[in-house]
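Worked Example 4.2. Consider the chain below.
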Amino acid sequence: MSRYHYRPYKPETTRRLYGDPHPNVYIPLKDKFEGTTTTGDAFQGRLGRAAEPCIPEVRTINNKGKHDHNTNYRMDYHSHGLSLCASKAFTIAQNNETNPTPISTK
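Applying the procedure from the previous section yields the following structure tokens:
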């Protein structure tokens, strides 16, 4: 598109109805409020017992016995076998050469 395709449009005023949102403008009701509502006329309260809270009772946890702290993640995890970078492998090889385990001859 270029500037040759531009057409100046004239602004259109829209006719607003009651209840349409518009900032800082109050439109009064057309009819006078009668003072009663459908809910107020039709509601019939019923007697009954009061609502009770559903709070669980306080109990101590049985902490006797052995606990298994394994999780599904720990049990099912398989390492991806990522290779070491060359510098890390060289450092590990150097440490293994300089710290040989002593072998007892007795």
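The chain has a mean pLDDT of 79. The helical segments are 38-42, 72-76, 86-98. Compare this with Example 4.1 before moving on.
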